[in-house]
UniProtKB/TrEMBL annotation:
Coiled coil: none annotated. It comes from Catellatospora aurea. Pfam families: Condensation (PF00668). InterPro entries: CAT-like_dom_sf, Condensation_dom. This is Condensation domain-containing protein.
Length: 457
């Protein structure tokens, strides 16, 4: 759920503005993409499988409508003497690529669909010439389609995919039925948010900048003992390893959190700090987490496609051989303080730290933890169709290790996504096994000392 608060409204930009400033979050992506333009672009994408009689024409018109509603999906970028700007294109919809695989043998269609989609998810998109949004519809059978929309990350974040799904869920049935969709007009656009940020008061930014400068001073990068030699430049593909812990362990994790006045997220984060302490030998390092960002807390922006998400670096303090319960208390305090200062864009945090750049290492933190509080059902429901996932994995990871955790009907699922240029499958399998052992130990013995806990992990 979004924590939508009644902050001061975002005003519509002056009508004479054709070229708009970049938000600080966009400026960070611009720098990354233009400094290293030869690699694949950072992308976010939606992929759905439709079982049933899809009206392909109505679906294409629904996608067109979403693109026309959200200016950011029609935006390109340009260099100017004072820096890059973003320019909104006309509302002409989008060309949907249609790939018909029905001539292939039935047992080859799904694999070929995955190959084609993975090819399109490893594109290098030019921010200046575009297009920065691609969409395809693959026909595996008359009643079996796979649809994907791929968007450059400078235009959209993960929450934007939910916005798109919700709108498509309203538009498609209305277009099929020939009725008017119940979709209110958008009061502002992402460009209005970008303009408002460029003229915003910076007092709170200065306060947040000082907080992060102090919080992350002297932070050393995380290096795992069993990692391969770090490549000079990041570029290896990603791989992933998934595990599921039983529902009983998930329930006991939640019980431990309640007893310590912590959320499940805090328990899992503290356990991950223990795991990486064991794997690195370091008791002082940061783990990154994503947060929704300032834009998603404003009512008029909550329904927009755009880049609002931010990242926080949560520095773990494992010094002094604490008990796990003591570590939980430290984690709770760190999380609460960080969320009070979550609005400063991560790129500005990095700039404030003045940390040396290394093309083979992400700055600030090298591991991320991504946690979903509740079980997520499909965000898209369409009448007459069964909407299924069509998992493709993650083609490239900017950090060394990303750990995803989410509840599900079979228990708490964890997925370890890793850079294959740095970590091997056996090493990551050991981490996944160790993470479960840490959790099983601490729910039984929350007062166990760190030194003893790592022996059992």
């Amino acid at each position: 759920m979004l924590d939508v608060t009644a902050e001061s409204p975002v005003n519509v930009r002056p009508s004479h503005l054709v070229e708009l400033p970049l938000t600080p979050l966009q400026a960070r992506w611009w720098l990354l993409c233009t400094t290293h333009p030869s690699g694949m672009s950072p992308l976010v994408d939606l992929v759905h499988r439709f079982r049933g009689p899809l009206d392909a024409d109505a679906w294409a018109r629904a996608v067109d409508t979403v693109v026309n509603r959200h200016e950011i999906l029609r935006t390109l970028f340009a260099d100017r003497p004072d820096g890059p700007v973003q320019v909104v294109g006309p509302a002409n919809g989008i060309t949907m690529e249609v790939l018909d695989l029905r001539d292939l043998p039935g047992d080859q269609r799904e694999q070929r669909a995955r190959e084609l989609l993975n090819e399109r998810r490893t594109l290098a998109l030019d921010l200046r010439t575009g297009p920065l949004v691609h969409t395809s519809l693959l026909r595996l059978a008359d009643d079996d389609h796979v649809w994907r929309m791929t968007i450059h990350h400078i235009l959209a974040d993960g929450a934007s995919l939910g916005v798109i799904d919700r709108e498509l869920g309203l538009l498609y049935p209305a277009l099929v039925a020939g009725t008017e969709p119940d979709l209110p007009e958008l009061p502002v656009q992402y460009g209005d948010f970008a303009w408002s940020q460029s003229v915003a008061d910076t007092e709170k930014e200065d306060e947040d900048r000082e907080y992060w400068r102090e919080q992350l001073a002297g932070l050393a990068p995380l290096e795992l003992i069993d990692a391969l030699p770090r490549p000079a430049v990041k570029g290896a593909p990603a791989a992933q390893l998934a595990r599921t812990v039983d529902p009983e362990l998930g329930r006991r994790v939640e019980e431990l959190g309640r007893a310590a006045r912590c959320t499940r997220f805090m328990v899992l984060l503290a356990a991950l700090h223990v795991l990486l302490y064991r794997a690195s030998g370091r008791d002082d390092f940061a783990i990154g987490i994503p947060v929704a960002g300032v834009g998603r807390t404003r009512p008029e922006l909550a329904r927009l496609v755009g880049l609002f998400n931010n990242a926080l670096a949560l520095r773990g303090d494992l010094s002094g051989d604490p008990t796990f319960r003591e570590l939980l208390a430290r984690t709770r305090e760190t999380v609460i303080d960080a969320l009070d200062h979550q609005d400063l864009p991560w790129g500005q945090v990095v700039a404030a730290l003045d940390e040396p750049s290394h093309p083979g290492r992400a700055q600030g933190f090298q591991a991320m933890f991504l946690h979903e509080e509740v079980e997520v059902a499909s965000r898209l429901a369409l009448p007459g169709l069964a909407v299924e996932d069509f998992g493709l994995g993650i083609p490239k990871v900017l950090h060394d290790l990303m750990v995803y955790a989410r509840p599900g009907p079979q228990g708490l699922s964890t997925t370890f996504v890793y850079d294959t240029g740095l970590l091997t499958e056996p090493v990551v399998a050991g981490l996944a096994d160790g993470y479960e052992r840490v959790l099983r130990t601490v729910v039984d013995e929350p007062d166990i000392r760190l030194s003893e806990l790592v022996k059992r992990a």
